[in-house]
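In response to reviewer comment 3 from the previous cycle, which asked for concrete evidence that the modeling workflow produces usable outputs, we include below a single protein chain processed end to end. The sequence was submitted unchanged, and the resulting structure tokens are shown without manual editing.
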Amino acid sequence: MAKNMQPVLKRCRTLGVSPAAMGYSKTSNRNPGGQRRAKKSEYATQLTEKQKVRFVYGIGEKQFRGYFDKATRAEGNTGEVLLSIVERRLDNVVYRLGYASTRREARQLVNHGHYTVNGKRVNIPSYIVKVGDVVAVCEKSCSNNRFKKLKEDDAFVAAPKWLDRDKNTLQGKVVAIPTKEDIDFEIAEHLIVELYSK
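The workflow returned the following structure tokens.
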């Protein structure tokens, strides 16, 4: 995947994404999109929505297109199925369980093999979890200071309702398929569908 070296907060401002959605606590009362042209073309609006999702989840264009094709073949609303797929990526699940402070950090921790899915070590950030899957910190990694601190930390982030987390054993279970309401930032998925349907 091509690595985007652009500063995160600058990219957030360009795409109109709140830095909080990226795991950064910097908040601003200003419009996150900054001062832009008043009128955007239809194509520009659709492209921005697609780039926003790709940026937040850290997905390359080819892989994102693959997710869209998979969502098109699945039953149900294509846009909502697409968001459900990207939300169930292992790196995102690790972030949403509170085992990493940002999605980028979660991706790195998954790459380094710190997590298991149903007892098997998985080091692929794009691994899609299913309902009933148990994501846990590896036994070996539990002795790591970083994960010891997670057990003791009281300021644990609240997991979304589609995930069930056990703080004491540092494991979480996927109890449902995530819906659009479970996503932690605003997204108009119908614009992405319109863009790819041209």
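The first helix runs from residue 8 to 15. We consider this sufficient to address the reviewer's concern, and the full set will be provided in the supplementary archive.
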